Amino acid sequence: MIALVTTQAARGHDHDLEILTAALDAADQKWQIVNWDDASIDWTQFSIAVLRSTWDYYARLDDFVTWVDRVSAQTQLQNPAEIVRWNVDKRYLQELSANGIPVMKTTFVSQSSDITQELIAQDVIIKPVVSAGSNNTARHRKDALAARAQLDHILASGGVAMVQPYSPTIDVVGETGLVYLGGKFSHAFGKDAVFGDAEQVHNGVHVQEVITARVATPSEHLLGDTVVKFLMNKFGVTPLYARIDMVTNIDGVPEIMEVELTEPSLYLHLDAGSPERAATALANAAIAARR
């Protein structure tokens, strides 16, 4: 049986689950949707446990990482614990950049002395390095006082912040996300500017977004494939699922914004063949785990 792992607050909001479970039914695969923090669950009954919408992990990181390690000893977690631990802290962007992968300009702030007037006087996006669903994320349009206040708040809570200049191209073309299943490209999507001029709407677990189908450009495909190859070389395994989010800079070059390997929405409704591809990837992983 396959565990599709979520959290109570995400139930009714993870629209991939309904699509994925129907595809698993069609593939004659047994499944169960479970909350990650449900102490009554016997994880040994599952061949694999697939993280789907554990969207509260950022607020309970220590508990979540402890659970990841514990469950990994009882069943096969997907993605594996080593990948998850690396991915929940966005300082992984530094490693991508150090390996020659284009990444959005990002400044990490771990202490007050890292904060300069030049940094906070720009049009910037600020968020903690451990975050999800645009929670605790804000845009400051050359408002140094507000930017400083948010950075001080993150530092005071024991966190590390990241500061990224707001890219004007996002207002024109948005973001592009590439979804990989079983290490192979599945489909792409476009995301309108989350922090543009439109008012944000929060559904209780994440900021609501305008998502549409998109055909990725050759340069976006190349960047996505490069990241997947890096992950395979680093961890020695192919991630069961990966979502690679990128933006195009003012020079027309795509750059990584985030690499989602823990609990990404996959937007399976945007591509007719993606539910079957997702179910096949999960079924293959479950079969391999039983061997």
Q: Which word captures the global form?
A: globular
CATH H-level superfamily of the largest domain: ATP-grasp fold, B domain
Q: How helical, in percent, are the residues?
A: 25-40%
CATH class of the largest domain: Alpha Beta
Residue-averaged pLDDT:
92
Number of strands: 13
Helix/strand order, N-terminal first: EHEEHEHHEHEEHEHEEEHEEH
Which range does the strand content fall in? 15-25%
**What is the CA–CA distance across the termini?**
14 Å
Q: Rg, please? A: 19 Å
Domains counted in the coordinates: how many? 3
Instruction: Briefly note the structural class of the backbone.
Output: alpha+beta
- Low-pLDDT stretches are 198-206
Describe the structure.
The protein is an alpha+beta fold. Helix 1 (15-26) packs across helix 9 (274-290). It contains nine helices and 13 strands. The protein has a five-stranded antiparallel β-sheet. The protein starts with a strand and ends with a helix. The chain has three domains: 2-87 and 284-290, 3-Layer(aba) Sandwich (Rossmann fold); 107-165, ATP-grasp fold, A domain (Dna Ligase, domain 1, 2-Layer Sandwich); 168-266, 2-Layer Sandwich (D-amino Acid Aminotransferase, Chain A, domain 1).
Characterize this entry briefly.
With 291 residues, the protein is an alpha+beta fold. 32% of the residues lie in helices and 24% in strands. It has 9 helices and 13 strands.
